[in-house]
Every structure is written in structure tokens, then in C-alpha cells.
Amino acid sequence: MGGRRVKPGRLLLLLWVLALLSWAPGLDAEEETPSRIPADKLLVITVATKENDGFHRFMNSAKYFNYTVKVLGQGQEWRGGDGINSIGGGQKVRLMKEAMTQYASQEDLVILFTECFDVVFAGGPEEVLRKFQKTNHKIVFAADGILWPDKRLAEKYPVVHIGKRYLNSGGFIGYAPYISRLVQEWNLQDNDDDQLFYTKVYIDPVKREAFNITLDHKCKIFQALNGATDEVVLKFENGKSRVKNTFYETLPVAINGNGPTKILLNYFGNYVPNSWTQENGCALCDFDTIDLSAVDVHPKVSIGVFIEQPTPFLPRFLNLLLSLDYPKEALKLFIHNKEVYHEKDIKLFFDKAKHEISTIKIVGPEENLSQAEARNMGMDFCRQDETCDYYFSVDADVVLTNPRTLKFLIEQNRKIIAPLVTRHGKLWSNFWGALSPDGYYARSEDYVDIVQGKRVGIWNVPYMANVYLIQGKTLRSEMSERNYFVRDKLDPDMALCRNAREMTLQREKDSPTPETIQMLRPPKGMFMYISNRHEFGRLLSTANYNTSHLNNDLWQIFENPVDWKEKYINRDYSKIFTENIVEQPCPDVFWFPIFSERACDELVEEMEHYGKWSGGKHHDSRISGGYENVPTDDIHMKQIDLENVWLHFIREFIAPVTLKVFAGYYTKGFALLNFVVKYSPERQRSLRPHHDASTFTINIALNNVGEDFQGGGCKFLRYNCSIESPRKGWSFMHPGRLTHLHEGLPVKNGTRYIAVSFIDP
To answer: Which end of the chain is more exposed for a tag (fewer CB within 10 A), N or C?
Structure first.
């Protein structure tokens, strides 16, 4: 074969260039050369006149990587400005100036100054020192793509061809004598601007050279997120997670959520320090946890219950509260019920709960409270009670299937924490992983994995709702103002979360700052967490709950199928497929459990409430042709608008049994006639022999022989086989045409009810 040969030298050069272009550092790529400066010669200095969640996160990340941290200004009043879209911060320089006097002569000491409320470490001291040494400068400041606070100074900055051009004072590192000399230049006021001070030093060529200052142009040490959100991603590799700047292919160590990027920093903070794994969750999830098994007296908890709309399965919801694995003497209840429809449920619950829980406050629909007013009142129920250690808010659409939910949340020892609950079969949940620019829902990169349990841990999130736990001492301190559920025109849950994130409440209401900017203001309040470390429960769908019937939950098979099954399907149903409990009392007549007691009772109640029984007449306008050869005294499912529900029930729960007992037959799950029959001596006591117009028939007993009626049953004439003791909630299944001629045996007294479907006619 012919072709042009490449000279060996050029070939090697070409391969080298291709390798260089394709190379991208892994998470450990910057850890190859050890630092010549010992790690114990690095001192981190920060300023915090108060402690909040951001401060504790910073300190825990520092502890994780074994940094030595000195905190300045603790217990002092902050005089450095409000820090929101304004100049200020000079107090930090003044405190540094005072502190550096004791380190000024330590030539081998390296000082790293950083903000703390919005910073996390992603690497350790050795990495920081190694990268600092490689700069060959005495002081290195963080670099930024945004010039602040005086844009007129842009032309005075040195030209930078690759990397960020402007100084960011949120982080810098240098040898102690040089840092000391730098801050000794400060002679301004506490509310003057720290970044402007450092900027003027840097843009002065003489001072820049004298102090030997450079910027971390490619974000190797410091990463300011503001203006750089498109550059920075979270990378996972070899069981580690790390924030990576994809523009410069660097792995910054100190991540600063400056400006409007606090929520993004919170997201990164869920994964760094970099030992996060899919199996174990975040590295800092278990700091300062509480072991309730080791306490003699459990914390006092006030539970706030909110019924804001007609809600399916409410009695079960209320009973689940009593089944929480928590001492009842440590519980108090506040219940707000907005719906007259549910007053009967609340009364039944109160009559039961008052024997277990000593304090129950009920606020009914007659008070005509708004959601915000009711939730403020519920929060006050705990806030004003000095003995209340926790406030547990639960909406009525939350199904808490884990009785240890309350204990699990308390043990995490967070100011605000929620259990993850999701809507069955959907990605709908009670939290948002991110916010849009206007403060509404945005899907975070990890949202689906968290909801589906592919990533497990305790997650710092910007929004949670429906069910959450708040520490009582938090309500009486940081959240002592009462109106937490009111904010502009926001829904109460959004108002709560925004107020908690920003800790500014209505003080912003009259602010001239545009609403979009307000939404993006740096959150300076509390972190809110969601836990998916356990299966806690699910959310109900309430949007299409029709209350026009007597037993409205019967119609919830589509909206809330899991809850419908739990309430209405016999608890032994699954044993049909695992333990072979299907009986065969007559040839090809199969007998199995299908309905719960509650399903039977509610179906009978619904039919009697409707009340239009057919009377067992031959002429029947409800059926095709208008004539019934073997009539029964019945009501069709279609008459009470239950037909679609019933057919779905057949497809979901009858069809699998059919396949088991009639091997190879796949039913279409369709039936034209679905009805409830009523037998009594006064109306219709029996039914003459007949074949059903079906491929197969189901016949479900809806009440108890011996208790509700005597007699009754079914006889299959060809086999001379009778079943005279039908079990409530159990169904017969038998062929319809040709083989199974049968009759209804006489009821001697009482009333017998059965549900019948002629399937695959």
C-alpha cells in the first residue's frame, strides 16, 4: 500500500500535541507534587461576629480537612455594612490588622484569609500550600470576572490574556510578614469597603511589586461563583466528588458562594468535602447528631396538623399520627381544619386521641383563617411554649408510613429538616433542589437521583414543604418574628422558605430594589435540609378529590392507587401468589380474598345511600335490549359513577388471579355488567338456575353470613356442589357460559349483598 510517510520527529510531536489537547485532570491530578511547606505552617483566619449555619458548615469542612482556623470578631457588633449590594467590610481588615501583629515576624507561617458564611473547603492544607508555592508570589488573591465596587478602575488592572482579571477580597493567601505589612496600610473606617482597599493596593504597580501580589487567575485555589456558574461543575470520580472549573481545568480548594450564588454553594456543599459517595451520602451529614436511645426523657414536640382542602383517606392520616414511635406524654397537638366536610373525622379522632395526648388544640372552619394565619398560629403554639423543644408541621396530604420519622429527624439535630415524601409513581416531591431567577421551581442536577434514592443523604435545599421539623429554640431566637408565612404575594410555604433563607421578612417590602434582585439576594439565614436516608412515606394527590359521594375514597383508585389498595384490598391478597391460598370448593370454582372489610362496608353503604334498587324486574332500561331473563334486585356500578373505577379494579387485581387459576388465559378485563345484588326475604330471596353472559364471573361477598343474614349461597347444578358459607371480602371466580349452570340459594332472613361482574362477555 502506498502513502506519504511521516518523519519520526514530526510523528512524536503530533502525538504529544494530541495527548496535550485530550488531557484533562482527574480529581487527583493536582496532587502529584508534595508541598515543601509543612501543613502545620498554614493558619486560616476568618471573621465572624455571629455564628449561623453557614459558619458551622465552614468550620466543619475545615475540621474535616484538618485546617487550623482562627476566628476574629466573635461576640463583637458588626459595623461593616449590610453586605447586600453595597460597599462595606472594612471591619474585617481592621480585625486582620490587629491580629497580624502577633504573626508579623513568623516568616515561615502562611496565612489564608477567607470569608466563612459562604465558603466551603474542597481540599486540604497540603494542596493549598503546594498550589500557593507554585505561584512564586508572596501574596495571592482570589480572582473574579466581575469588577466590584468601582468599575471605573478596570483600565488600571494589568492585562490578563487567560484567566480572570479582577481582584476578589473574599480569599487570599500569603506569607505572614507580607500579609501583616499589607493590612497595616489600612487607615479607614469599619464600614469602608475592604475590596476597594485591596484593589487600590493591587492596581498600584509599585505596591503590587513591593508586596509581590498576584491573582489566582485560573481559580486553582479560590473559586468565586458569582459570574462563574457556567464554568463550574461537580465531578464524580473514584468515589470522590469535587468542584471543577471546566474553563481552566482546575480544581479550586476554597469555594466562595459570593453574591447571588448561595443556593449553588449549598448544592456544592452537599457533596464537598470530597468523600461523598452514593452509598454513604455527604461527608458532614452526621456532625453533632443526637442519639435518642441514650436519653432518659424525650424532647417535647408540638405537632401542627393542617387540613386545608378536602383530603382523601384523612382518618388513616390522623391515626398514623397516633402510631408514631414517640412517647405520647411528650406530644402536643395543634389541628387546623379548614373544611366542614372533615369535621366528623376530627371529632372521631379527638375522642380517641384525648386519652393519649393531653393537650390538643383544634381550630375549625368557623374561624375562617387563611393558610398563612393558621400556620403562623400553629408555629406560635410551639414558639410561645418554653417547654416545646421541636415543632413538627404535617399537612394532611402526607402519608407517614415510617413510625420512626419523628425520631429520625430529631436525631439529625438540624434547625429545619424535612423527610423526603414523594407522590407515588411520579417525580413530584416536597422539596426543590434549585430556584429559578425569579425564585420559583428549578430542577437541580441531582433532583431525580435524590427522589429515586440513587443518592442518599441529608441535603441542603432552598425549598421544602408539607412536612418538616423546626427546633423550638430556633423559633424563639432566629425565627422569633411571628409572620413567617406571609411574604409579598407568595404562597405560605414559599414565604416560609424565603424568610428562613434570607432572614429579612417584611423588611424588604418597601425596598426600592427590583423584585428579581431581591429574590437573588444572598441568603444569610438558616439552612433547610431534606433527608432521604429512610423511606418516610408519600404525598397524596388532592386535586381531583370529589366529595359528592358518601364514601369518596372509593373513587381514588386512579389518583392515589397505593392508598386505595391499602384501604380496600384484602391484606391477604398477595398471598394468592406466594402461599397458594386460593381454594377450589367446586370444580373450576376458585375462591380467594379480594376486598377488605372496609371496602365491603363502604360499597354497601354507597349503594344504600343511592337507594334506587331495580326490584328484580324483567324489564330493565339499563341494559341493551331492555329485558333481563334472570333479573336480580341490583344497582349497577355505572349508576353511581363507579364503573371506570370498577373496571380498573378488575384489570389491576382480578386479571392477575385469572392468569394464575386459568393458566394461559389472558383476560381483557372488560365487563358490560357490574353490579351489587341485594337479597332479602322481603324483596328477592333467591335466583333461579342460569348461565352468566361472560367468559368468567366474579362474585364477591360483601357481608357476613350468620351475622347479617342466614341462608344464601350458590349451587353449581352440574357438579351438585354448593357453597353455603361465603366469606366477607372473598370472591368466587368461575366460568360463565356452558359449564357452570348455577343458582342463588334462598336467604332465610336478614339481607345479603354481593358484587358481581360478567367479565369478557
So the answer is: N
Whether residue 220 lies inside any domain: the answer is yes
Element (H, E) at 267: helix 262-269
CA–CA–CA angle 646, 649, 651 (5° rounding): 115
pLDDT of residue 520: 34
**E-state strands within 543-684:** 583-586, 589-593, 634-636, 671-679
Check if the beta carbon of residue 365 is closer than 8 Å to that of residue 338. yes
What tens digit of pLDDT does each residue of 380-389 get? 999 999 999 9
Which residues partner with 46 through β-bridges?
71
What DSSP assignment string belongs to 15-57? HHHHHHHH----TTTT-SSPPSS-GGGEEEEEE-SS--HHHHH
Residue in 57, 414, 423, 752 annotated catalytic:
752
pLDDT at 83: 57
- In 3-state terms the chain splits into helix, strand, coil percentages (rounded to 5) of 30, 25, 45
Per-residue confidence band for 1, with pLDDT thresholds at 50, 70 and 90: very low
C-alpha distances (whole Å) from 391 to each of 354, 395, 531 are 19, 13, 17
Q: What gap in Å lies between CA 428 and CA 431, rounded to an integer?
A: 9
Angle between helical axes of 90-99 and 194-203 (0-180°, round to 10): 70
Residues 322-331: pLDDT tens digits?
Answer: 999 999 999 9
Question: Is 737 an annotated catalytic residue?
Answer: no
Q: Which of 4-13, 466-475, 610-619, 701-710 has the lowest mean pLDDT?
A: 4-13
Query: Is residue 528 within a helix (H) or strand (E), and if so which, with residue range?
Result: strand 528-531
305-314, 505-514, 715-724, 727-736: range with lowest mean pLDDT: 505-514
From residue 440, give the alpha-carbon distance in Å to each of 302, 486, 505.
Answer: 30, 16, 17
Percent of the chain whose pLDDT exceeds 90: 83
DSSP annotation of 650 reads I
**Same-domain pairing of 81 and 228:** yes
Residues 6 or more apart whose CB falls under 8 angstroms from that of 344 comprise none
Neighbouring C-alpha atoms within 13 Å toward the C-beta of 2 = 0
Asked if residue 556 belongs to a domain, the reply is yes
State the Cα–Cα distance between residues 493 and 528, nearest whole angstrom: 13
Domain housing 416: 292-504+522-539
Q: Is residue 11 part of a domain?
A: no
